[in-house]
Amino acid sequence: MTGFAFPDGFVWGTATAAHQVEGGNWNNDWWDWEHNPDSGCVEPSGDTCDHYHRYRDDLDLMAELGFNAYRFSLEWSRIEPEEGEWSTAALEHYRRVCAACHERSMTPIVTFHHFSSPRWVAASGGWLEPATVDRFARFVERSAAHLGDLIGWACTINEPNIVSLMGHLAGVFPPGHRRSDERRQVNQNFIAAHRKAAEAIHAAPGTAPVGLTLAMSDYQAVEGGENYLHRIRSAHEDVFLEAVRGDDFIGVQTYSRSRIGPEGAVGPEEGVEVTTMGYEFWPEALEPTIRRAYELSGGVPVLVTENGIATPDDTRRVEYVRRALAGVRSCLADGIDVRGYVYWSSFDNFEWALGYGPEFGLVAVDRASFERRPKPSARWLGSVARANALEFQP
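Request: output the structure for the sequence above.
Response:
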């Protein structure tokens, strides 16, 4: 075995999203969607991990494990429950979460929109409605003014390409539409919202770097799929990567590869291990997506804001992350500016339409008692973070 030391100041974190861990977020479009019997959702989110009330203990655990950063999202529907009505109590809650991170020597990485929008936004047309751009910018301005001096990194919008794909083409996220023309409009609205949000955060107190996080895949053409691959990647990734040039960073979020034939996705290759999500076990996907994000964005620094695996076999989680980090090491060795690695997720939580089946967490959560049980992978990755170094097999 030999070792590799990561750069000084490298970010080592874990990630959550408000609706997936807080519990009781009944005033957003996702709560409405998961209770719609026609949505196809496996089950409702309910109390999830009760992280809204247990965040201090959860941050104690993450700090004890060895992580120096924590990524979480603001729940817009708590902060602005009706249009123009602002909850100081909710803003103060998120300010306390940021402060609790600092008290534990952890950098708060704050995401302003992670999939869920207030019911009143959805009722007014959601992200298909151009007016949502200014509504979101106003929410970001208000939130950043209250929290900005405590934010370490600011992510404007989480995976806008997934919201547009799953909500407006595949029909499995709210609003459940299946129209390709809508997807294009939603993407443009998200890009405009990102630009306005970035301006608002930069104008607020604090000096946090600002960026967008993007769902990426290692697209690989098979059996004459080159043209189709180009079409998919252009619509799903490139439109955003080209839009973030000049930003402070780009958040790369990668889980596997996608094999593309002449008619579209062809699914997992025979004989390749498959995760609970149906993805191929393909940790090597992270390296090429980092390289591509860095290249197409014009050299914007990269923060890996999500990478992980859904599996009940924790030994496979360790193997997956070890190989993914070997790819990060290779990028760094070639001079690519990678600032950190954030694992998804801190806890086994509500995995959107799939409910509580997929286990992405470093920490298991008892659904009845809310007891937290760190897995061996949590101790292992925490030790890597504490050492800021990785041992690997040449």
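Residues 112 and 156 are 5 Å apart (CA to CA).
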